[in-house]
Design goal:
The protein has helices at about 5-30, 35-65, 75-105, 110-135, 135-140, 145-175. By secondary structure, it is mainly alpha-helical. Bound molecules: fe (ii) ion (FE2) (2 copies).
């Protein structure tokens, strides 16, 4: 498999979550309320999967290796745009987490900020994914040898495996805050 294979499979899962977010947005616009637990699920997914796991492999493996190559200016421009998109996605998601926490604590005025963030994310992700799937991933594979592609694929698998351990280490660290302070 090409190193972009797992990334394209991950795009399909992100699209499925975006579809649910679109459905929840339409309902929330009609009912003038939203389920904060759903927003928590969606933002956890975006942060852990779409950003840390998926954008992580793009930036820390694929783009890192691409930066070592002499590439066409059009590919350079698209890569820079994609990195900017990732940053924007992080900012909007952080805004959504913050607005959701205000809403959960009783601030009904935070609903409009939540809806605006959700609207931005469901508009942004499909376009970002299309840019990668249709105009970028396949053409840039031409810069790499068979061995380089294989090495990136393997590094991606290790990246995913390490993430699982990182995630649960964080969970235990968080849980340990419940312990009494050491004497
Ligand atoms: Fe991306
Ligand atoms: Fe992607």
């Amino acid at each position: 498999m090409l190193p972009i294979g797992p990334l394209m499979i991950e795009h399909r899962l992100i699209e499925r979550m975006i579809k649910v977010m679109r459905h929840e947005l339409l309902q929330a616009e009609g009912q003038k309320k939203i389920n904060p637990r759903f927003i928590e699920t969606a933002t956890d997914f975006i942060r852990a999967y779409a950003d840390r796991c998926h954008h992580g492999k793009e930036e820390d493996i694929l783009f890192r290796e691409l930066k070592k190559k002499k590439i066409a200016s059009e590919h350079q421009a698209v890569m820079e745009e994609l990195i900017e998109d990732h940053k924007r996605g992080r900012q909007v998601t952080a805004g959504l987490v913050e607005a959701n926490s205000r809403y959960r604590n009783g601030d009904e005025g935070a609903l409009s900020a939540i809806l605006e963030c959700v609207r931005t994310l469901i508009g942004f992700y499909p376009k970002h994914i299309e840019k990668e799937d249709k105009n970028f991933f396949l053409p840039i594979m031409g810069y790499f040898s068979k061995d380089e592609k294989e090495a990136m694929l393997m590094e991606g698998y290790r990246f995913d495996a390490d993430l699982l351990h990182e995630e649960y280490q964080e969970i235990v660290k968080g849980a340990e805050r419940r312990l009494p302070p050491k004497p």
